[in-house]
Design goal:
single chain, mainly beta, 1 helix
Amino acid sequence: MKTGEPVATTKADTVCDEPVALGMRGRQDGRMLGRMKRAPVIVHPPCTGGRRVTLYGQDLGRALRPGDVAAILRRAGFCATTFVWDDTGVFEWRDGGPDVWLMS
């Protein structure tokens, strides 16, 4: 490549195009982002102590409300200023959506 030639970039090379956790761009658990079949963020069923939040299977902590989920994800490196909780490409809510926080 000659100096001054434009370099093609992929979406994974850019920062903050979408909520992508730092260190999670590219390969993770043998899968590539953008080709995943499952949502990367799973908010597990309510239990004592809140709902467990995982990112690609890694436990990030427990949340007692949607604001806690957002704070946990920001600490993990998500660069989104707001979250679309019903975005099934990002979130999987198990046993109830973002409005369910108590055990049934």
